[in-house]
Amino acid sequence: MELSKSYDPKETEAKIYGFWEESGFFNPDNLPGNRKKAYSVAVPPPNITGELHMGHALNSTVQDILIRKKRLQGFKTLWLPGTDHAGIATQNVVEKLLRKEGKTRFDLGKEKFIERVWEWKKKYGSIILEQFKKMGASMDWSRTRFTMDEDYTLAVKEAFLHYQKKGWIYQGERVISWCTRCQTSLSDLELEYAEEKGKLWHIRYEIKGEPGNHITVATTRPETMLGDTAVAVNPKDERYKSFVGKKAVLPLVKKEIPVIADRTIDPEFGTGALKVTPAHSFVDYEIGLRHGLETVKVIDEKGRISENAPLPYRGLKVAEAREKILKDLEEQNLLAKIEDYSHQIPKCYRCSTTVEAMPSKQWFLKMDELAKMAAVAVKKGKVAFFPKRWEKVYLEWLENIKDWCISRQLWWGHKIPIEGETDVLDTWFSSALWPFATLGWPKATKDLESFYPTCDLFTDKGIINLWVTRMIFSGLEFTKKPPFSRVYINPTVMTKEGQRMSKSLGTGINPVGLIEKYGADAVRFGIAYQVTELQDMRFSEDSIVMGRKFCNKIWNASRFVLLQVGKEEISLPEKMKERGLTASEKNVLKALSKISSSLDKDIETFQFGKACHEAYNSSGTISATFS
Ligand SMILES: [Zn+2]
User: Fold this and answer.
1) How far is the CA of 132 from the centre of ligand 1 (A)?
2) Residue 119: which H helix or E strand, with range?
3) Cα separations (Å) of 280 from 226, 283, 299, 336, 586?
4) Distance, CA 359 to ligand 1 centroid (Å)?
5) Residue 465: DSSP 8-state
6) Which own/partner contact pairs does 588-596 have at CB distance under 8 Å and 24+ positions apart?
7) How far is residue 318's CA from residue 299's CA, in Å, rounded to a whole number?
8) Distance 256 CA to ligand 1 centre (A)
């Protein structure tokens, strides 16, 4: 075999990837030799709407490093690929396309709409998997899974019915976060907070039977006052002691509401008196529960004022209602003060609409037992996080966990398996089963026996609680085993200046473009070279340029060796064995073996940057030894 004179990744990489695919060795069943020990990794399934970004590039690179190492070391190696149906994300993408045709999903109806989503999926849903191939990922494509495959759907149903049988599934009215655009509930983890320069309005509520005597509340959301059912103060607040137990008259609504004392009220905030709207605030909902307050829902699912409010406000959009209410209050001289006030407001993570808190009937999964199990698994070291500091994030969430709202009012997803129910399950309910449902669970398949539990999980800090935690308790509940023993949280790829990479901000870097420019190996090396234990990676293209030079160096060295070997009928090592090794050859081999075991240790402990530095520097060390 002769290598071309200069290294051209475009010429070489596709050929090599083709060779690997044809060999069938990405599939553990085809690997040569008697491989007893398995090493398996399930790829975090990207959304079918996804396209490769730098985070994926990093995540797949470090996975492939371990997979390829283990494959060479004689493990029965499975790296299982697949995609997630991504309920809300996918539904939004298809809705956007419909909008271009001047239609909504309601024009199509549910059945036709879902057909459209499947069509879309067939056409575009595998783009990201093709991009993984461009990265050189050695995934077993014959085992590609999708969270809405027929078998996977059965697994989801089985899991739901299991929980139901245990009595852990219940329906309840609860204040939840609601996207008035997507028309669905959202979990806490699906909210994104944005800083808003708002106002703090001070509003006078008259004390009943004491004309001229007011208690003044401060609020950022005056429109929710239509649903107030109390005013709360701190019991230690001297200013308000005499008010507690009295009734205030809710302006505009003319309803009498109690003044109550609650320890959680911060006397320093605003006026120290809080208007309590249990229907439209999580904090107020808790206060309402403690004091047995009425819950009056005044904002509806479309983001309009409901018929529980006085006539003049009904049907107005939230923003319109706010304007009218402030005008009316001012006319009645009930607006005491207006302050500038910046605060964080929750937005839908899919469409950025401001999210409303409102009571809604939803399905919940009880978390007590599951959370306990998940915490114990990490505390006892059955699952370990790398870097270890992430265990704290995991455990803290479990300590403060609320029951999981698992229903979503979407059309695209796994329908809740209860007769008459039209809601679908939260996307994370199905992806929580990923490590074992992809291997055939609940059937007792050969794959499940050979490759479960998986070994390592490689993921991002953003989904520790959305996904990792839920996989751990699902694994423990359904298979009695943690689904993996190590969780590696890779750094977040930031720009060189430390900014978040984002397509919409124009700060993103497309890894496919980098591959075109430098070749996949150079990109993989350049990314891995920058991995440290720090939370963020400030990505620099310089390392990729270095990666390309390194590839070139290896290419030239290989070419040199092959040219020497090609001259003889026998291979070089055999020839060397015959005549015995020279002192400098021995030194080279010694240096190589030392570096090789050091790299092995680094990779095994997820020190990818260190491993790259060593490999790069060693190429110099070895040639120095040789001369
Ligand atoms: Zn939304």
Assistant:
1) 29
2) helix 110-124
3) 10, 9, 8, 23, 76
4) 17
5) I
6) 588/622, 588/625, 588/626, 591/618, 591/621, 591/622, 591/625, 592/622, 595/621, 595/622
7) 8
8) 36
Q: How far apart are CA 218 and CA 213, in angstroms?
A: 17
- Token pair for residue 520? 């996949």
Q: Which of 459, 470, 473, 484 is nearest to 390 (CA)?
A: 459
Q: How far apart are CA 183 and CA 355, in angstroms?
A: 10
In this prediction, the residues of the chain whose per-residue pLDDT falls under 50 are 627
Ligand 1 center to 188 CA (angstroms): 13
DSSP 145-158: EETTSHHHHHHHHH
In this structure, what DSSP letter does residue 333 have? T
Cα–Cα distance between 163 and 186 in angstroms, integer? 21
Residue 377 has which token pair?
């698994």
Per-residue confidence (pLDDT) for residue 627, from 0 to 100: 46
181 Cα to the center of ligand 1, angstroms: 5
Amino acid at 77: T
> How far away, in angstroms, is 88 Cα from ligand 1 center?
8
For residue 349, the CA-to-ligand 1 centroid distance in Å is 7
The residues facing 258 across adjacent strands are: 247
Residue 184 Cα to ligand 1 midpoint, Å, equals: 8
Residue type, 238: E
Ligand 1 centroid from CA 178, angstroms: 8
Between the CA of 601 and the centroid of ligand 1 the distance, in Å, is 46
The amino acid sitting at 504 is S
Number of H helices, E strands in the chain: 21, 22
| Cβ atoms 491, 531 nearer than 8 A | yes
Q: Is 352 left (phi over 0), alpha (psi -120 to 50) or beta?
A: left
Separation of CA 189 and ligand 1 centre (Å):
13
Q: In terms of Cα–Cα distance, which of 56, 62, 19, 239 is closest to 609?
A: 62
Read off the amino acid at residue 454: T
> Are the C-beta atoms of residues 235 and 266 closer than 8 Å to each other?
no
Q: 347 C-alpha to center of ligand 1: Å?
A: 8
Q: How far is the CA of 358 from the centre of ligand 1 (A)?
A: 15
Query: H or E stretch including 356?
Result: strand 356-365
Q: What angle do CA 413, 365, 392 make, to 5 degrees?
A: 100
* Distance between Cα 186 and ligand 1 center (Å): 9
Residue type at 516? E
Give me 602's structure tokens. Answer: 């680094």
Q: Using CA atoms, how far apart are residues 192 and 502, in angstroms rounded to an integer?
A: 15
Q: Tell me the whole-structure pTM to 2 decimals.
A: 0.84
Provide the residue type at 47 as one letter: N
Report how far ligand 1's centroid is from the alpha carbon of 462 (Å).
Answer: 19
Cα of 58 vs centre of ligand 1, distance in Å, is: 29
